[in-house]
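Forum: Protein Structure Q&A
Topic: Joint prediction for protein chains with partners

I've read a bunch of threads here and the consensus seems to be that you should model interacting components together rather than docking separate models afterwards. I'd like to see that in practice. Below is the full input, 410 residues plus whatever partners are listed. Could one of the regulars post the assembled result?
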Amino acid sequence: MQGRSNRRAAAGTAEKDCADCSAAVRCWRTRPRRGAGIAVTTSVVLGRGERAFAQGDRYSGLYIVAEGCIKLRETMSDGGERIVAVRTPGELVGLEGWVAGRHPHAAIAAMRTKLCRVELCADASPDLLVRLLAKASEQLHHASRPWAGRSALERVAAFVTDISTRLDDEAVGRALPMTRAEVASHLGLAEETVVRALGTLRKRA
Amino acid sequence: MQGRSNRRAAAGTAEKDCADCSAAVRCWRTRPRRGAGIAVTTSVVLGRGERAFAQGDRYSGLYIVAEGCIKLRETMSDGGERIVAVRTPGELVGLEGWVAGRHPHAAIAAMRTKLCRVELCADASPDLLVRLLAKASEQLHHASRPWAGRSALERVAAFVTDISTRLDDEAVGRALPMTRAEVASHLGLAEETVVRALGTLRKRA
DNA sequence: CGTAGTATTGACTATCTTCAATGCCAGTGG
DNA sequence: CCACTGGCATTGAAGATAGTCAATACTACG
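Posted by a regular:
Agreed with the consensus. Here's the joint model:
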């Protein structure tokens, strides 16, 4: 459109235009126009339990979840761990560490997961920047924990619904992509409370 | 830099370059270069309790807090209200509603507050987009509630510390910019619990 | 001075956490 | 093959934390 991609190509980074990817709609909602600068440089496939990066690592790039599910895990100063967020297809992984230059938490695949890397720099395509900003906006909105201040049962129910919706292709109904302990740490509950809440929900269904 | 500002000027919107604003460092961390497209169109000053927009309003623009403090308040389907977030100088207000086209919560001044409006569109300056993305990144990081899963006392203590840091110019120590009930809703606690926690913290100090 | 909103305090209760024990399952090595 | 181990899930009982209800004080504002 504005010859911007030339500049990127000159930088020497091999890119794959998302317009050529069959899964692009999943990542970008609408299929990008070819040559608009909506492109990724690398794709990684992680097996369950593998990490894209560890907490404290230097910022190593911004990724979009193409398939699967990523857990963001933070180890706190007191040694405790908590799941800060769960990222599902179309969501960004790594943006939190961009400004500070370090990843504030680890990114761990909850199942087989494909990540596509996006080069984020000052001369990126404006189209790309706008799309990323839109994603950041959505994630910011979603980060406002709809279950804050509710009862344990409601929180667990809301979490299960939310995660099922976001991962709808696989039937999450029977197996959550994380352990009860992780769900508990994410919701700020005890593991046993999560177990009991899930039991109650199962009986009700 | 690339004649982009011409295009904007042609659109008929009067802009004020942030490079000419004495408070720009507060908003942008580093002073923007003149002509880089880091600019705002309008500034609004809100008195305590006044709204920038209401929940459900059509998206009306993106703002940066130049001075003061904004509370984001959400009224839930059951009629309850909660403070989703607090925005302090240099932070963005309104981004959450950009993609969906509607503001998901109301923005209310907690004190005398100055907001500067940023025009966010596909042909905005790439410099501006990158800066906004950086802000979104920081806010996303900050949205991961460091007090999740901790005791009521720790949560209140963390909140007071956090808000005091972010508003450090005014001495917040003696008067929080919001009511106990609002703090409570923000932290997912009962008002009385917040009162007691503040009492305990006062005694300890 | 009266009113409305906010803050504080006490007493009681519900919920959630903690502690402890047990079951289940997959992987491993004899 | 089977015992053993470690991680995860489940359940019960007891105790602590925070929520609810209710009364009272404080403050700003007409």
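Residues 179-181, 191-192, 195-196, 199 of chain B lie near DNA strand C (CB under 10 Å from a C1').
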